[in-house]
């Protein structure tokens, strides 16, 4: 999210901070060597500010426990260094949220509703056209975000009529990118359908039992497929080679047969059914 929304150059985050009488620019290198960045950068943005605050509280408490008036002056440089580190990451998280609330939240919400076929309250979406218009007509939403929502709508409708496509492109004010939209057909998608919108091509996701955020409800179908493969729940009719590889004399076939059951041969190794937190 940081690299998507903020102006990060050469892995360096820059921001302006103010003192009593002046303002100056600060810079921090975002790399795996930084222990705080390494721990936070894969976390959901909703958890980052809370986590940094917890780290800061723990740090301050430890200093109060381990520091007395006799040596606090000697420890101040290191103390300030740590405080600056926490302050910078709080500023980074706040900066991301400002950009997110500005023009990103609305397209994300619409994308989730389209992909899931229901809103955050699990109410079925009855008018997907009305849903996408709130993004297409919003001048604050960047053109490429509008195009992404428009392409998702077209894919889920299995194409739209030529007339409706022209209207949607006009509403979004992305006429300059109409070729980009039509080129979806080069990837096997249906953009225009002479009979109007076809049947929905949405693959229904499995109902998640994991707690999710409203804007993180959709998960790729391939995730369900991989979990089924690990737990031997794949449909044998759809995946016959996984269970009954075709016999062949070549060494390649033997290798394929071996790796079709790779997850069964790791005795004693714990298998996780989802992504790392």
UniProtKB/TrEMBL annotation:
<comment type="similarity">
    <text>Belongs to the STXBP/unc-18/SEC1 family.</text>
</comment>
<keyword id="KW-0653">Protein transport</keyword>
<dbReference type="InterPro" id="IPR001619">
    <property type="entry name" value="Sec1-like"/>
</dbReference>
<dbReference type="InterPro" id="IPR036045">
    <property type="entry name" value="Sec1-like_sf"/>
</dbReference>
<dbReference type="Pfam" id="PF00995">
    <property type="entry name" value="Sec1"/>
</dbReference>
<protein>
    <submittedName>
        <fullName>Syntaxin-binding protein 2</fullName>
    </submittedName>
</protein>
<dbReference type="InterPro" id="IPR043127">
    <property type="entry name" value="Sec-1-like_dom3a"/>
</dbReference>
<keyword id="KW-0813">Transport</keyword>
């Amino acid at each position: 999210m940081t690299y998507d929304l903020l102006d990060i150059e050469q892995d360096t985050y820059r921001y302006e901070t103010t003192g009593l009488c002046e303002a100056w620019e600060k810079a921090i290198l975002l790399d795996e060597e930084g222990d705080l960045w390494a721990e936070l950068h894969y976390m959901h943005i909703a958890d980052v500010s809370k986590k940094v605050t917890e780290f800061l509280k723990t740090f301050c408490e430890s200093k109060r426990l381990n520091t007395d008036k006799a040596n606090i002056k000697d420890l101040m440089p290191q103390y300030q260094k740590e405080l600056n580190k926490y302050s910078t990451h709080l500023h980074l998280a706040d900066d991301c949220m400002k950009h997110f609330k500005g023009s990103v939240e609305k397209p994300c919400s619409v994308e989730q509703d389209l992909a899931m076929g229901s809103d955050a309250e699990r109410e079925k979406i009855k008018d997907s056209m009305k849903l996408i218009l709130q993004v297409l007509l919003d001048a604050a939403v960047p053109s490429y975000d509008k195009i992404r929502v428009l392409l998702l709508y077209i894919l889920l409708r299995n194409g739209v009529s030529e007339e409706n496509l022209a209207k949607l492109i006009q509403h979004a004010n992305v006429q300059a990118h109409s070729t980009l939209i039509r080129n979806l057909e080069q990837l096997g998608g249906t953009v225009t359908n002479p009979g109007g919108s076809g049947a929905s091509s949405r693959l229904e996701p499995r109902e998640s039992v994991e707690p999710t955020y409203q804007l993180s409800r959709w998960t790729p179908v391939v995730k369900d497929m991989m979990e089924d493969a690990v737990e031997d729940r794949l449909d044998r009719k759809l995946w016959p080679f996984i269970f009954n590889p075709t016999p062949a004399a070549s060494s390649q076939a033997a290798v394929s047969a071996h790796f079709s059951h790779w997850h069964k041969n790791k005795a004693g190794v714990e298998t996780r059914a989802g992504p790392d937190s």
